[in-house]
Amino acid sequence: MTLHLILLLLAAVVLAVVACRSLNLPPILGYLLVGALAGPHALGMLPDTASARRLAEFGVVFLMFTIGLEFSLPRLFAMQRIVFGLGLLQVLATMLAVAAGAMLWGVAWQASLALGGALAMSSTAILSKLLADRRELDAPHGREVIGVLLFQDLAVVPLLVLIPALSQPLDALAGEVAWALAKAALLLALVLFVGQRLMRAWFGLVARRKSGELFMLNVLLVTLGFATLTEVAGLSPALGAFVAGMLISETEYRYQVEEDIKPFRDVLLGLFFVSTGMLLDPVAIWNDAGRLATLLALLLAAKLIVAAGLSRLLGSAPGTALRTGLWLCTAGEFGFVLVVLATDAGLVDAVLIQPVLAAMVLSMIVAPLIVHFSDRLVLRFVASEWLTRSLQLTQIAARTVATEKHAILCGYGKTGQHLARFLETENIGYMALDLDPERVREAAAAGEPVAWGDCTRRENLLAAGITRASVLVVTFADIDTTLRLAERVRELRPDLAIVARAREEEDVEKLYAAGVAEVVPEALESSVMLATHALALTGVPMHRVVRRLRELREQHYALLRGFFHGATDATEGLADAELPRLHAVTLDACAWAVGRRIAELELEKVGAGVTALRRRSQPGVSVGGATVLEANDVVVLRGSAAAVAAGEELLLRGPK
Predict the structure, then answer these.
(1) Is residue 498 a contact partner of residue 489, using CB atoms and an 8 Å limit?
(2) pLDDT tens track for 100-127
(3) DSSP output for 26-89
(4) Alpha-carbon distance 244 to 267, whole Å?
(5) Where are the beta strands (DSSP E) in 361-449?
(6) Which candidate, 144, 137, 104, 100, places its Cα nearest to that of 122?
(7) Residue 553 has what pLDDT?
(8) What is the pTM of this model?
(9) Is the pLDDT assigned to residue 301 strictly greater than 90?
(10) Does the pLDDT value for residue 417 go beyond 80?
(11) Strands, E assignment, 470-567
(12) Is 24 left (phi over 0), alpha (psi -120 to 50) or beta?
């Protein structure tokens, strides 16, 4: 391969992956597309040589090594009912269903079984990201999808052993499979019982040299060394890499190893998918479009029926079962690994591979669309889902029906629970929405006002009493979800103050622009507290430390300006009614202050001041004496209880 060809390939891959990212499609599809267009069946720019295929196999080796790193026995035991119940049944049933269908189509049983194993896989990369983006990891169907994906990753290991053995003659097949499984079991036993201690000691020896280059070279040595060991033993190199990852996963070097291996894995895995795309013949697929469409429809329908049926059989609600089937009905990246393995073993011929690979690619393309419309499909075809949704809303509304001026907490994790304790000490009511069913169940059993529900849904917010609430607090730091939530709140209650968290500094301005009243940057708070402790321990007087802390916070939290007082501040000892507080006043079209400048109001005469101004048409509007107030403005007053009450009277009705 010449330098010009390599540069052309890199340029094509970069453009394809950028296009996929822009369309919210997995980059795998970009690699496959480049391979199909530049491969021997289309433009012929990439020769299908043995050396290129061999290099691409290392991508699978590093992928399996990463899967081994993420292998966790405690996680398996925690989800054993789903993983070894629904996951095992889904893989076996899908393999048998696909194999039966392929045999009816005239495919040999060995190839049918290999294709069944490949098509039983779903995309861990796509589905786990979609679950995280939609905040459905802890939803009932989210737990089932993750459990099944976890078992599918594990099922690849025996399939890597089984598929090459299927190429043996029928009379020697049973003995070949038994021998291969025995070798794999022996290797796993030796490695797990002996290798773990040796691996920890060896990595400790390398780490003590304090050389990043040496540590990375050692990671490559271990990965490729175990891959070579299993290859010499007559097994798949990917199996050895998986075992190596398992050994390191239980050591303290796991995360560093994962970071070091990631660049090699991503580049070589991209090359593997390019080589897989080279198997596709665009002309043959176009000429056989009808057969391809039929195969795609059968694939989606079969996997949907199997996954949904098994989920329902194991006791899931009809809506949960259908969602699980819709999420798992598409193909996955491991399916390509197994299809290529079956092709190399001579089980699948070139004529059959074209529609199979094309159907897998198309199913991965439509996966985000299926997920997007999954809720609508469930509501359309599952009659009981409406009743379930109504019961959830009723439970939420029942807890807030007699509550006014309460706080709505979006998320009831550790942050939400700490906040709830603060609200309780001030006798302020609250309603929390959370998507973790276990957490909600435990909190509700303890009498906490917590309900299961997605805070971005209009009906859940209405049931939580958003029309009567005084503040909405977002306790998680997911910027995309918070922006969607802010948009929903603006539709339902434009004057409601939103307080949100921000993980990154650049997210702060986005949230302010979306109408969030106050944003708490995590990086700022952690650095402020670190600086406070550091200054105190270096001998700086405490009153100066407190003053620095107050000044820094006042610069970043305009809404709470002047509220961070220390023990030596003048407000100590004042009665509660005399302490300064915030109060939001919404100006309707008839309010006296509409059309007047803030300086004209003379709020200082009643002891109040304007701290902030929220205007839907102009996020982040500055507050000054020359600022003219408009209808629907939300004016945040600061002062004592009597002062803000007098200030509200002045804003709405004018001076007496």
Answers:
(1) yes
(2) 988 888 888 888 999 999 999 998 877 8
(3) -HHHHHHHHHHHHSTTTT--S---HHHHHHHHHHHHHHHHHHHHT--HHHHHHTHHIIIIIIHH
(4) 20
(5) 407-410, 430-434
(6) 144
(7) 65
(8) 0.66
(9) yes
(10) yes
(11) 471-474, 497-502, 518-521
(12) left
Rounded to whole angstroms, how far apart are CA atoms 321 and 302?
Answer: 14
410 torsion bin: left (phi>0), alpha (psi -120 to 50), beta (else): beta
Relative to beta strand 450-452, strand 407-410 is: unpaired
Do the domains spanning 3-378 and 576-653 agree at the CATH topology level? no
For residue 153, give both structure tokens. 């990753």
- Per-residue HEC secondary structure of 82-117 comes to HHHHHHHHHHHHHHHHHHHHHHHCCCCHHHHHHHHH
How many Å is the maximal CA-CA distance in the chain?
A: 104
Q: CATH: 3.30.70.1450, 3.90.1300.10, 3.40.50.970, 1.10.10.10. Which one for 576-653? A: 3.30.70.1450
Tens of pLDDT, residues 429-453: 899 998 887 788 778 766 788 888 8
**What is the C-alpha to C-alpha distance for residues 98 and 551, in angstroms, rounded to an integer?**
67
Residue 331 neighbours by CB under 8 Å, 6+ apart: 118, 119, 121, 122, 123, 299, 359, 360, 361, 363, 364
CA distances from 86 to 50, 146, 154, 600 (A): 39, 11, 14, 70
Domain-by-domain residue ranges, the chain? 3-378, 390-516, 529-572, 576-653
Q: What share of the chain is helix, strand, coil (3-state, %, to 5)?
A: 65, 5, 25
pLDDT band per the 50, 70, 90 thresholds, residue 56 = low
> The domain 390-516: what is its CATH number?
3.40.50.720
Q: Give 491-516 pLDDT, tens digit per residue.
A: 889 888 899 988 877 788 888 888 88
Average pLDDT over the chain reads 80
Tokens standing for residue 133: 């983006």
Average pLDDT over residues 185-208: 75
**How many CA atoms are closer than 13 Å to the CA of 198, on its beta-carbon side?**
8
Domain spanning 3-378: CATH 3.30.1300.10: no
- Can you give the three-state secondary structure of 290-320, one letter per residue? HHHHHHHHHHHHHHHHHHHHHHHHCCCCHHH
